[in-house]
Amino acid sequence: MRHLMSPLDLSVEELDTLLDLAQDIEAHPDKYAHACEGKKLATLFYEPSTRTRLSHEAAMLNLGGSVLGFSSADSSSASKGESVSDTIRTVSCYADICAMRHPKEGAPMVACQHSKIPVINAGDGGHQHPTQTLTDLLTIRSLKGRLNNLTIGLCGDLKFGRTVHSLINALVRYEGIRFILISPEELRLPEYIRHDVLDRNNIPYEEVVRLEDAMPQLDILYMTRVQKERFFNEEDYVRMKDFYILDKAKMKLAPEDMYVLHPLPRVNEISVEVDDDPRAAYFRQVQYGVYVRMALILTLLDIHVD
């Protein structure tokens, strides 16, 4: 039995196989429509989510399976003090596979140590968000045709952004990757990721404050929101939240074949006037998220479709 706690749980070869499967699902959805009949997915979401929870549920429904679960800690026995380990032991009696989001880093890891079913980490605090990373990789590969020899701009909240941390860890395994880290001083990429991931793997990167300086060099711009829920006080959040706003003027500085990604939800860091630009790929990214989660469910349940 396998779990997915981090993108690094999959080798590059396994990752490529998973992305190939996701692209086959996109091309031939009818072929997979009954692959998970009789199977149940439990979604255990201890903090709010729209895309991650609904895309896991849509993925299972598209495969012919069913879903059960809760969408906040308040609507579960966690509100009565039940531990994660006891919850997953219980849920293992009801479902065949589980997706868990939790505000505490490491909670899904605790769950998988006590689970009788595969556990998918659907986000834990500021730590990891592996299914978003799989979505990002599928989106980049589908749009650019490759996952190597790319200059990736990461913009916004690089300190608390778990999507950014997971994506960096996944992409450093491919050749010719270069990062431009775009953030204010207060939201810089944590030192342990710069040293333990980028420097240790000899990945070239530069840190800049102005988005305009990076735009002409990019193959992919990965925008993130400043996350209010990660700040300890309102004043710091208000000061940071409007630091970067991507608009038409900044898009004019970018190459014609650059694409903009965003894990969503956005607040105001991408102006709605950018939505009509053919390089705005964040809603296509949402659709790719369903395909890659369908592929992941099939892989973890060891279900093969000819």
Task: Give a structural overview.
The protein has 306 residues and is α/β, with parallel strands linked by helices. It is 37% helix and 15% strand. It is built from 11 helices and 9 strands. The protein has a 5-stranded parallel β-sheet with strand order 7-6-5-8-9. Helix 1 crosses helix 5, helix 1 crosses helix 11 and helix 2 packs across helix 11. The radius of gyration is 19 Å and the shape is globular.
Strand order of the largest sheet: 7-6-5-8-9
Distance between the termini: 22 Å
| H/E element order | HEHEHEHEHEHEHEHEHHEH
Note poorly predicted spans: none
The coarse overall form would be globular
User: What fraction strand?
Assistant: 15-25%
Main sheet properties = 5 strands, parallel
Structural class: alpha/beta
Q: How do you describe this structure in short?
A:
This protein has 306 residues and is an alpha/beta fold. It starts with 11 loop residues before the first helix and ends in a 6-residue tail after the last helix.
